[in-house]
Write a structure and sequence with these properties.
alpha+beta; FAD/NAD(P)-binding domain; binds 8-demethyl-8-dimethylamino-flavin-adenine-dinucleotide; binds P-hydroxybenzoic acid
Length: 394
């Protein structure tokens, strides 16, 4: 088999890259280790920045998002038992975010790919990437007991944090920066109406909580929990009781509980691998970086990485220019480090760190009080939350 770009991973970054290349007439094959249903069963992100919305529109898959997604112009911060609104829309000159689940984004991209008749190999086993330091890289995989080889011009490693692409780079060629947080997020999805029309980010002495949603009838809530906790150790009742204790009286009254449709614990990590290009192998999305979910940046960064990558590849094929390829890594990393900084800062501000003692909590509360009463500080949060423009700083 031969293709121009072999894409490893059919998460949001692989699928979006596939569509961007298809629009430019560049052919690609996507190899995915899991089945399509498995990929759709992972409950993850919920908040899309304008840049991400624009990209989904650009590739023609935005229709359902605009019909079913919820446009949010602000969010609440709850601390010392009181809620304060960050007016993102007002503070950023009219920018919003869209609440639309990653599952739905993935489904829309998968449907578009299938309708266009583009090749995706699900349940591709033992994928290996080879010869990416030459002009003729190759990818091997197994399917139904047979081995296949793909010859290509480029390999896009869109295979997430545990993927094969970053792991295939010689150790000395990549530098990693990592911070692991001493807690996780216990998430519950339920068919219950959201507590409030916008998201509520909660700083409490019992730990962080987040009231989010997928629609007017489906909620997504998170609790900060110790890393030693297990999903089995948290009954639905225990989850709702603990959430109630972290909320303000009005939110507590508005909270409707119900059985969990999904319950999982996610560890929190900040991670960046540098560079993001190795000859003809590119890393994009979670394969190259992880942010803690507090700033809702992971999916959005994945989308902007593949925008830059598609631009570089289009330039290569259409203008015979290597320039975009050469600057891909630096261009991505400038944006990534700003999102890493924001996500780390927001995580540090909102979570309970017992090791910092009572003074840690007091300092967080002072910063939060400053933030919600200083227009300058609130604008900085709003500007980062809605997402920096693609060409920020250029
Ligand atoms: P993915 O989604 O991990 O997809 C990678 C795909 O590659 C496949 N794969 C392989 N395929 C072939 N061969 C191999 N050897 C392979 N190894 C792996 C995998 O099966 C998978 O299908 O990475 P991608 O596409 O880069 O997308 C990144 C996003 O999924 C991620 O950043 C977000 O989910 C992060 N995130 C959030 N991001 C936001 O922008 N807004 C949010 O509100 C938000 N909330 C979240 C989040 C992540 C969370 N968790 C669970 C980590 C909330 C949570 C709780
Ligand atoms: C979600 O709805 O899953 C969600 C929303 C905002 C975040 C993280 C996750 O910051």
């Amino acid at each position: 088999m031969r293709t121009q770009v072999a894409i490893i991973g059919a998460g949001p970054s692989g699928l979006l890259l596939g569509q961007l290349l298809h629009k430019a007439g560049i052919d690609a094959i996507i190899l995915e280790r899991q089945s399509g249903d498995y990929v759709l069963g992972r409950i993850r992100a919920g908040v899309l920045e304008q840049v991400c919305i624009d990209l989904l529109d650009e590739v023609g898959v935005g229709q359902r998002m605009h019909q079913e997604g919820l446009v949010h112009g602000g969010f609440d911060m709850l601390f010392q038992g009181r809620r304060h609104r960050i007016d993102m829309h007002g503070l950023t000159g009219g920018k919003n975010v869209m609440v639309y689940g990653q599952t739905e984004v993935t489904r829309d991209l998968m449907d578009a790919r299938r309708e266009a008749g583009l090749p995706t190999v699900y349940e591709a086993n033992h994928v290996t990437v080879r010869d990416f330091d030459t002009t003729r890289p190759r990818v091997h995989y197994e399917k139904d007991g047979k081995t296949f080889e793909i010859e290509c011009d480029f390999i896009a490693g869109c295979d997430g944090f545990h993927g094969v692409c970053r792991a295939s780079v010689p150790e000395g060629a990549v530098a990693s920066y990592e911070k692991i947080y001493p807690f996780g997020w216990l998430g519950v999805l339920s068919d219950t109406p959201p507590v409030h029309e916008e998201l509520i980010y909660v700083n409490s002495q019992r730990g962080f909580a987040l009231c989010s949603m997928r629609s007017h009838t489906r909620s997504r809530h998170y609790l900060q929990v110790p890393l030693s906790d297990t999903v089995e150790g948290w009954s639905d009742d225990a989850f709702w009781n603990e959430l109630r204790l972290r909320l303000d009286p009005a939110a507590r009254d508005a909270l409707v509980t119900g059985p969990s449709l999904e319950k999982s614990i996610a560890p929190l990590r900040s991670f960046v691998a540098e560079p993001m290009r190795f000859g003809r192998l590119f890393l994009a999305g979670d394969a190259a970086h992880i942010v803690p979910p507090t700033g809702a940046k992971g999916l959005n960064l994945a989308a902007t990485d593949v925008k830059y990558l598609s631009r570089a590849l289009i330039e290569f094929y259409q203008e015979k220019s290597q320039a975009g390829i050469d600057t891909y890594s630096d261009t991505c990393l400038r944006r990534i480090w700003k999102a890493e900084r924001f996500s780390w800062w927001f995580t540090s501000l909102m979570h309970h760190f017992p090791e910092n003692g009572p003074i840690g909590q007091k300092l967080q509360e002072a910063e939060l009080d400053y933030l919600v009463h200083s227009e300058a500080a609130a604008r900085s949060v709003a500007e980062n939350y809605v997402g920096l423009p693609l060409d920020f700083g250029e």
